[in-house]
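For the sake of transparency, this paper describes our internal protein records without simplification. An entry from our holdings is shown next, in its original layout:
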Amino acid sequence: MAEVIGAALEMKAMGAGHRAIADWLGRPAATVRGWLRRFAARAAEVAGVFTSHLVALADDPARVLPAPAADVFGDAVAAVIAATVAVRARFAVAAAPIWQVASAVSRGLLLAPGWPPSDR
């Protein structure tokens, strides 16, 4: 399921609307819209958490920091992907799917209310 939600987030970051994403993924539009809204509501915080992980884990964080995206949603998706790539490299789990690693980093709470915690 993490890969499906991750695909939806990536497609939204590239400009797709929730209905097109839902059609492509074969999911109800309301479900996809909910995922996108929950992520968007905390995109800046998510970007901060995953950028912190990226800086802590990457051998050369300046080299792998993603360029700014068109919006905060895109910045957050880029930060999640970049940090996940750093996690995979650091812990020799290169074959681990990106969004499953992202889910593990967030303890499965990426879209849950209250994540990321404000006291991090």
Observations:
- The mean pLDDT is 90.
- The helical segments are 2-13, 18-25, 29-41, 43-57, 61-64, 72-90, 98-105.
- The first helix runs from residue 2 to 13.
- The two ends are 26 Å apart (CA to CA).
